Structures are given as structure tokens and as C-alpha cells.
Fold:
Amino acid sequence: MTPIAPTDPTMPPRGDEVDHARRSVVGCLAAWSGAAIVWTVAGGVPRAALAGDRAAPADRALRFVQISDTHIGFHKDANPDVVGSLRRATAEINALPQAPAFVVHTGDVSHLSKAEEFGQARELLAELRVDRVHTVPGEHDALADGVGGYLKAFDLDGAGRSWYSFDQGGVHFIGLDNVRTFSKGRLAAIGDEQLAWLRQDLAGVAHSMPIVVLAHIPLWTVWEPWGWGTADSAAALALLRPYGSVTVLNGHVHQVLQKVEGHVALHTAMSLAYPLPTPGQAGVGEPGPVTVPAGELGKRLGTREVHLVRGRHALALVDMPLER
Amino acid sequence: MHPSALFFTAIAIASAPAAAQAPAVVEITKFAYAPREITVAPGTTVRWTNHDETPHTVTDKVGELASPGLDTGDLYEHAFANEGDYPYTCAVHPFMTGVVHVRRP
Structure:
């Protein structure tokens, strides 16, 4: 199968992508809400588009929505109303012309792992008119009692652990917890127990089956000084490499970054809470919340989208943060 | 700051006459513990205060230091009874590291 490659933002859009009025509306909504990303899997190839983008395919394709980093409990200047932001995203998702099969939340559901934050998040996510919301924990969800508090609210399959897999729509989904094991140094890790589970889980999956992996922290090293990477991601990706189509959906960095390695495409998502700085940004020494005036926040979040096309070999190995 | 400057700052705090009563202080600012290394006498309480908008923790691998997530302005205190070296990290940001050295004066 041909690898998925990100669209080159410097290329002019194709004719069927040009709809400036609609784009500006989507941009406006995204300015308020962060953004929800709608993923469709057609022919084994996941595609992403902003919620509200009606150009997305396709009949009978599996559609699901990714949200991330809601940080319920956050109340600082960077976004004093994270509940309102999640509700705006929920309204967008509920208004999609084709209802998604489910929603995935790639971690940092809460800000401080407090029981009341998990409870409120659970109630808010229940406002999504979908069958299920699949979550993975972020490090903000593992502050108090490991993932004990998180699992009280979000142990969807009742297995009592923070990783899982399921099949739906011809796709094998894997949720990983990569926010708790710090034994390997500066970066968090998946850990040997979970890697052993992953090996066993994949043993029953045909190489032709598309795989979608959910994990909070990127499964590639985005920026090591800020801990934006997973110490043992290479071990996980090695297990996934034989599969024809692997899509990794991450959060954590509060911005869209992409990387394609062979048949493995890795994507981070925007936050629904607040922006974080770009790695290596001049004058920014640490990954704290970025407070911008409301008008600028809209400009930063509203003009961004994720759109993948097939087979751009020239871009296949390029890390590509989208400009804000 | 040069690492040795941090070290001497820590010594100055630990050897001050009031050290036995007043807690030794570690500030958490800009994703770093300041001072990163601190030396105190047995029985001293160390107080960490988070000044960042991002939550941090004071967490070690053996469970002696196990703060909850510290929001902006939150404190965590721990009294060190025994001599030894107590390295710790932030559970949210494992690249943040600090050490408490507990030594008899």
C-alpha cells in the first residue's frame, strides 16, 4: 500500500478544496472551540478533515472523530472556559451531516486528575451523540493515583487497565498508555508489560488490516528537551511496521504535527484547551500554556486543518508542523 | 545560573540559623526546581511551591516524595528524617529533576 503523506501547505489547493466562505466559517468555529478532527477510513486509508468539512468522503466509510487535551479543570488566562470550548466542539460533532461511529479522546481529559474533573469530563463527553467515547490517559490524568482515578471514570471495557484494543469497521484500534513509566529517563514510556501485550494483541491481526493506534504522547520524538516523545516508541513501531496501513493519533503537544515513516503515519491533534508553543520557538524555554488575545487565538487555531492525500513520496519522511 | 552557584545557595539556606524551624524552600518556576540541589540537616522540612501555570509534582521512585499535582500556588512539604540523597522528578515532566541532600551539619 502507498504511504499516506501530508498535503504540502505551500501547494495551491485543488479545485475541489476551494470554498473560502465555508473555510472561513470552519475557521471561526475552530477559533472558539479548538477543533475536532473527523477521520474517515476508506479503502484502509484514514483521511482527516476539520469537523464541518462536508467535502470529506465517503459512503459506508468508517468515520470517527478525534478530540484531545480537554484539560477539564484548567482555568487560566490561556482559556478561562475549557468547558465552553468542549461544548462548542461537541455541538460541531453532533451537527455533522454523517454521524461518526464514535469519538476518540487522546488524553489529558482532566487537568489535575481530580475526581470532580473526571466526573465533569465524563458528563460533558456524554453530551456527544455517539455510541462510545474511547479515551487514553494523558499525564495530567495520572497525577494523583497513577491512572486509578482516571479508570474510575473511563474504564470503558471494564478490564481495569488503561490500554485496550477493539475492531470496528474493518479497522483494528489500539489504545495505549504512554504517560506513566519514567524508568527510562527523560521521556515517558510505554513499558515492557504493555509492549508484551501489544505483541500478543497484534499476533492475531492480519497484516492487511488497517491499524489505528491511540496514545497521548507522540510515538516519535518531537522535542526531547520538553519531554515530547516516548522513550520506547521504536519498540512499538517495530511491532507495527509489518502492517500495510498504520495510523497513530496522538495529543499532548496541542498542535498539529505529522510524520510518516514507511507505512506508519503519525499525527498529533490540536487541544480543546489552550495552545502550546512550537518546539524550539525563539524565546520560549518551556512548554507552558500560551495566552494570546482572542483575535490572535482565532487566527492561530482557525486557519489550521489536517488533510491527508495518498502517495506523496517526496513528503513521506518529512516532519511537518503546520504553520499557525 | 552556574550549577555551583545553585549549590552554594542551597548551602546558605541549609546553614542559616533558622533552618531547623523554617522550611527550606524550593521554587518551581519555568519547568525547573530552584535550587535544583538543596542540602538540609536531618529533621528539616522542605517546601516546594509551584509558580507555573502548568501543574507539576514532586515525585520519587521509592514513594517517599509523592506530591499530588500542584496547581499554580500550591505547596508541598516533606520532612526529611534521615540522612541520604533524595532525587526526584516531576511526574508530568520527567525532564525536570531535583535532589535533596540530607546531611548532618
Q: What stands out?
A: Residues 1-19 of chain B have pLDDT under 50 and may be disordered. The beta strands of chain B are 24-28, 33-34, 37-40, 44-50, 75-80, 84-89, 97-102. DSSP finds one helix and seven strands in chain B. The longest strand of chain B covers residues 44-50.
